[in-house]
Write a structure and sequence with these properties.
Family: Belongs to the UPF0213 family.
Distance between the termini: 18 Å
CATH architecture: 3-Layer(aba) Sandwich
Shape: globular
Strand order of the largest sheet: 2-1-3
CATH topology: GIY-YIG endonuclease
Helix content: 40-55%
Number of strands: 3
Pfam family, one: GIY-YIG
Protein name: GIY-YIG nuclease superfamily protein
Number of helices: 4
Length: 83
């Protein structure tokens, strides 16, 4: 399974990423070994994710979410609250 996820950083900003192992990736972020963006904004909290069968689909969705405004991301999270 492939995942697109949104993290909420300690400073209130969002980080969107892709992985094929969601639990491991969140752990890596919180150990300060994830994306450069999240390293200085720890701890991070998983607030949203989507599942995809193919990596290609997930990567396309990640790109689309990254282009969204903060308000659009908030609406996405609110309308599909799963955590």
């Amino acid at each position: 399974m492939n995942y697109v996820y949104i993290l909420k950083c300690s400073d209130g900003t969002f980080y969107t990423g892709y992985t094929n192992d969601l639990e491991k990736r969140i752990s890596v972020h919180n150990k300060g070994k994830g994306a450069k963006y999240t390293r200085g904004r720890l701890p991070v909290k998983l607030i949203y994710f989507e599942e995809y069968d193919s990596k290609n689909e997930a990567l396309h969705r990640e790109f689309a979410i990254k282009k969204m405004t903060r308000q659009n991301k908030l609406n996405l999270i609110k309308n599909c609250q799963q955590l």
